[in-house]
């Protein structure tokens, strides 16, 4: 940016600008952009954590041609929304005259894309005003915000194709209101909405025998929309699948999260109800070999499969059919029986994987590294956690996966050397992110590379555990101790420096 400042540039013709993940972008950089990139129509600041709400609002006030804004995980807040909702005529910009009769309209009224997921600085009042003006939106993400029903009821647009309201406190009727008015909806994410299908109460506080909003929402979805992607949790059941059949014939991706309960009958219907599925993500469901074999045999276009924390009895028999199109495989706490022999079979039947995640495969050992590196040489992401002794003797073969960009190794054996991070970065030229646990460090710690020696690493996460007494074992006279997560050290390099942050979350 410094060299650009000194070159005294004229006004730029750039219309689309993406700065996603650039934590080094500052308020002064945004001010420079707002002065010289007045033609911007698309702006992506996702994850730009150093810019403030005020600087984003000033940019919005100056770049009046913006119709697409992506500001997830930033300080985007009430000031920015006020800038979006203020009339263009108030900006003091001569360009406003080009809008003719619409010169009094706000920028919000012409927005087509607005993604503001996890922007906690936006209050309920601001959201109400924004939703009342954003009538042309096609793509809207409000995940993890302070979204309430009134804001959705205030939305009068009819052009939505994508809506993400995951992890908010909305209810079924308010979402049904959006669905009824937007028949072109193709992508819906309402996962983690705990109030979505709560039972309704009458004025005396007596619960109805059936939550009518659940039936209303799924009936409207099935009758109104032709969905391509859906993610639901609470309230998603066999009834929902039946009601959504008309909307699911073109469905390509389905995610069932915590709170959803399809049951065996619904899961058996999945391949026939959604014959075009390319991605299946099941969390906390009850599955069996027969269900998995049915899914594998019928969905020949399947590219992504995630089974996470599911119950039931599945075996290697579920994976004996060849899946040449499968690119992403996540088996998390569902295959504790997996051995090296089973892993070999997976490499043969799922030969084209680029992303692999295995959690809780305790029978795997250090020889599994060679199986993974030879069976899937094109892997770009590997997550291995609680997988026996894979790293008990250090890393011997995984370094051969030179395409790796994302590597997670946790609780797989205390064999990783102190210089592991630098070693991995030097041997895997595409590596961008590494996630480790001090439990796996042979010397109890890892060396942090110098800024110049990090190669292309941008993020390192190091988790630390603490010993906690476990009193659940009643047969043991002395309570045993187990390791539980305590904190995570997050290291982020940008073009200027290294930022260290310690968080309690297990990232």
UniProtKB/TrEMBL annotation:
| Residue stretches spanning the membrane | none
Matching entries from InterPro entries are given as:
Leu-rich_rpt_Cys-con_subtyp, LRR_dom_sf
Which example biological process does GO assign this protein?
Answer: SCF-dependent proteasomal ubiquitin-dependent protein catabolic process
SMART domains per UniProt: LRR_CC
Q: Which domain of life is it from?
A: Eukaryota
Question: What GO CC terms are in its UniProt record?
Answer: SCF ubiquitin ligase complex
Residue ranges the record marks as coiled coil: none
**This protein's name:** F-box/LRR-repeat protein 2
Q: Which organism is it from?
A: Dipteronia sinensis
